Amino acid sequence: MLKIQTKKLGAELTSVQYNGKEMLFQGAKVLDSNGNIYWKRQAPILFPIVGQLKNSQTQIEGEIYEMSQHGFARDMEFEEISKTENKHHYMLKYNEETLKKYPYKFELHIMYGVNGNTLTVTYKVKNIDDKTIYFGLGGHPAFNCDYSNGEYEIVFNEKEEDIEFLKLKEGLIDTENAENILQDNKIYLKEDTFDNDAVIMKNLKSNKVVLQNHETNQKILELDFTGFPYLALWSKKGAPFVCIEPWQNTADRIDSTQIYKDKENIIELLKDKEYKCEFKIKIL
Question: Tens digits of per-residue pLDDT, 102-114?
Answer without folding.
Answer: 999 999 999 999 9
